[in-house]
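Hey, I'm writing a tutorial for new members on how sequence and structure tokens pair up, and I'd like a real worked example in the thread rather than a made-up one. If someone can provide the structure for the chain below, I'll link this post from the tutorial.
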Amino acid sequence: MESEIALAWPLWATAAGILFVAGVTQGALGFGFPAISTPLLTLMTDVRTAIILNLLPNFTVNVISTVSGGNLSASLGRYWPVAAWVLAGSWLGATFLIFAPQEPLRLLLATAIFFYLYQQRLTKLDWGWLARRPRLSAAVFGLTGGFFSGSVNNSLPPLLIYFTLLGLELTAMTQILNLCFLGGKAVQAATLGVAGEISLVAVMANVPLTLVGLAGMWLGTRLQRRISPATYARLLRRILFAIALALLWQGTRYFLR
């Protein structure tokens, strides 16, 4: 059944502002577009609508980030098993998104944000089995990241934990993360499209919203020279923590009714 997206001017203007901020984040840090745009849009709509409004902007930003990162063949050649599992997980997550009640999905999105915020603590656990079972670890983290990507647009927590534990250099990590995001978005869009969840109105709204997101990304790349990534990352963490609490409150109300 098609998602109904009533694009009144206040909704479109707010969505445009959110995507601009998300673009700035992507440009400044090299990743983070869906981590900002999806939860903020969810606060004003629902998870499925937020993801559909995000499809083309998210996909376009990931294409640019992946291509501009360089050394794409090397990243794909070494880590293609993880990317392949992300594709499978994204299909499962998008299918779950279609059939699951929307309000509890807010809790899943809040959980994904909290995992991201506290992923440094999770890396201190005993992960020795990653080196002993590389194929299994690629499958577990790839599927989990893909599921979060397809269902709540946030594959960053499990994938970031996985590649951090592998000791990847920052540039290589950013490149493979964007590659996984790109594949996940393609599978998600195809799954939602086949299920009839993407309306013509949503497609038309995606075009100008994409341009707004790209404008924010352009500004973010220039802010890199004036604001240290560490300062921007600290601000991002505080914003995400507040968003996660708001989503947790919204999702909890569903079970208290």
